[in-house]
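$ ./design --mode recover --in tokens.txt
reading tokens...
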């Protein structure tokens, strides 16, 4: 009788060890191994709600300043990081230099027959540093006019001088990302 209880305990213990090992393997929440594939690099991470709101507001203001006709070039420049401004190598990215270099955007006129442009912002997330840009927040900006196809931009924002500013803006190519709801991390990683 004693040997049967020993065998029963050993069998039970072995079963418990196997069950624990299988549950641990199935429930593993560690990061996937990096296999050198760029697609495995960008991973969305949840962010704080207060930052998300500020990022979305800054991104929307930037897109409106840039895309509305005529462009509000001064606001657009103020909402970019110094390094993202086209005049960075000339004068360190001053707002005045940026405005001067983007003068033609301010000369665009609104086409009266086109419907008004509106934007939606979503998929705010942490984004890793890329080859050219620091880590920050990513957001997807979708522009739409009634009767026209929507267009999308992925934006990287970073804090500079205490404000969220656009560091990178990339067109989301519909040919590659047309069926992807959240291409932000991948676009910012692969283009930057």
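writing sequence...
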């Amino acid at each position: 009788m004693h040997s049967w209880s020993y065998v029963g305990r050993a069998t039970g213990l072995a079963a418990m060890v196997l069950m624990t090992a299988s549950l641990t393997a199935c429930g593993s929440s560690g990061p996937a191994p990096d296999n050198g594939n760029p697609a495995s690099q960008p991973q969305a991470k949840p962010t704080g709600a207060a930052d998300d709101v500020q990022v979305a507001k800054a991104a929307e203001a930037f897109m409106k300043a840039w895309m509305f006709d005529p462009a509000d070039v001064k606001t657009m420049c103020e909402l970019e990081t110094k390094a993202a401004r086209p005049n960075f190598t000339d004068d360190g990215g001053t707002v005045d230099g940026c405005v001067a270099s983007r003068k033609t955007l301010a000369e665009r006129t609104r086409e009266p027959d086109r419907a008004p442009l509106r934007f939606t912002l979503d998929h705010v997330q942490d984004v890793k540093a890329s080859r050219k840009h620091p880590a920050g927040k990513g957001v997807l900006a979708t522009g739409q006019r009634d009767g026209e196809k929507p267009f999308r931009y992925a934006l990287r924002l970073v804090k500079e001088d205490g404000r969220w500013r656009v560091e990178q803006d990339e067109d989301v190519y519909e040919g590659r990302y047309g069926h992807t709801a959240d291409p932000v991390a991948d676009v910012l990683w692969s283009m930057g």
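exit 0
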